[in-house]
Design goal:
6 strands; about 20% helix; about 130 residues; six-stranded mixed β-sheet; 60s Ribosomal Protein L30, Chain: A; about 30% strand; alpha+beta
Amino acid sequence: MPKQVIIPPGSGVPLAPYVPGTLADGVVYVSGTLPFDKDNNVVHVGDPAAQTRHVLETIKGVIEAAGGTMSDVTFNSIFITDWANYAAINQVYAEYFPGDKPARFCIQCGLVKPDALVEIATIAHIGKAA
């Protein structure tokens, strides 16, 4: 099946050559999502919970634009800059996945902009081919 590029309304221009999401064979692949506004400025500087909420809302927009919901998420790759933010990030994360949780991993690393505290990449199976 051919792939379909997913760009929700209001998306900014990416910093690098990628798109917010791709749908192929009923699977949505959401690019690594940072707490950026449409001009690629970091939002909620210093607040890991607010940044996580912003990232997950952005991911939700990509999945919904592809025809899915957050309950379709099967895997998340989470990148954080400091383990001290882990609890705050998890608290917000749990709000978006209240039932059965998706599989995931979480690592500490540097991110593309120093004020960004969290980045999440997602896979969702929406059961709908492109």
